[in-house]
Amino acid sequence: MIPYGKQDINQDDIDAVVNVLKSDYLTQGPAIGQFEQAVSEYCGAEYAIAVNSATSALHIACLALGVSKGDIVWTSPNSFVASSNCAIYCDATVDFVDIDVETGNISVALLRAKLQEAKKNNTLPKVVIPVHFAGQSCDMAEIAKLANEFHFKIIEDASHAIGAKYQNSPVGNCQFSDICVFSFHPVKIITSAEGGMLTTKCGNIATKLKSLRSHGITNQPKDLVKDDQGPWYYEQQSLGFNYRITDIQAALGLSQMKRLDEFVTRRHQLTALYTKHLPINLTHLMQSPDCYSSYHLYVVLLDNAAKRKEIVTQLRARGIFAHVHYIPIHLQPYYHNLGFRKGDYPNAEEYYSKAITLPLHPNLTENDIIFISDTLRELM
Ligand SMILES: *Cc1c(COP(=O)(O)O)cnc(C)c1O
């Protein structure tokens, strides 16, 4: 079976992990700081904070921006459920902004319209979480202008987008956001097995994130609120979590960071091969000239939604593990119970009805792409 996404682990990655296993620290060792520094330098953000998943990262990102009961958070319905669950963890209310069918990203025009409406109703969001779908950045400059006008904070869910660029600068530099979140799950661009990272330009936010990932505890003498009782002393100052990454995972992530550009270049080569070999009348996600995608996913859109189920089923029967990203979050049973209904976000629903994710990962060959393209052509 050709999977839709798969990690690429080489001997350097294995050696990096084994070295940690032979060292004194399995967790909270030197690899974590090195991994954070590598991501912070790559992205050009002053601070990077590693955690055990992007889901944890999104949760503490919301908390660090003060999201709590009574607050409203908006995100894209065309995403993984973690993009909106993070707000519910904080007892906030979630709502969605519909997407552009052409890119799968939230529509700036619909965001503007929804903000104007919300202003009248006094239901403006505290935080908006744009999701860089499939590795292509949202239009962050425009979203940041709206943030200025309507006074909300921005968390970029860049789980798909490490290695991507927006206006020639790396996603993750937080030029147009308060916090940016990456995932290092094995299907993503680089992996640390499980793992996530937050980047920010703001020292205060970074301090809060570091505290929240480790029980709300500090042992830094300058941060203590009571008298220092000795070298063993620490204080729990807020309600945090154990969201720490291990040194083993960080060593893998650090080693993979060295290969990030190579991976993204390879993904671009493979998507060019798809463009060459797929039927020419097939619709692909539109790429904005402002963006350089990391191509986490390769999505095609069928004209005829009625055929989608049969095509995906047949692709799998023939050894091609096609997938669909995403079932709109608001259609999940849990979100139905919160009051969302079919028809609430028609673009996300239309997009979902037509989308197929074809396999894309660095180890595919041109022959694989030809096989997938020919099989899809035949099924269509
Ligand atoms: C994968 C993913 C997440 C969650 O990442 P984990 O590291 O698995 O917690 C969140 N948002 C999006 C858009 C994702 O694709």
TrEMBL record:
Keywords: Capsid protein, Pyridoxal phosphate, Virion. Pfam families: DegT_DnrJ_EryC1. One of its GO terms (molecular function) is pyridoxal phosphate binding. The active site is at 188 (proton acceptor). The keyword Coiled coil does not apply. The modification N6-(pyridoxal phosphate)lysine is found at residue 188. GO terms for biological process: polysaccharide biosynthetic process. Gene3D superfamilies: Aspartate Aminotransferase, domain 1 (3.90.1150.10), Type I PLP-dependent aspartate aminotransferase-like (Major domain) (3.40.640.10). Belongs to the DegT/DnrJ/EryC1 family. NCBIfam families: PseC. This is Spore coat protein. It comes from Pseudoalteromonas piratica.
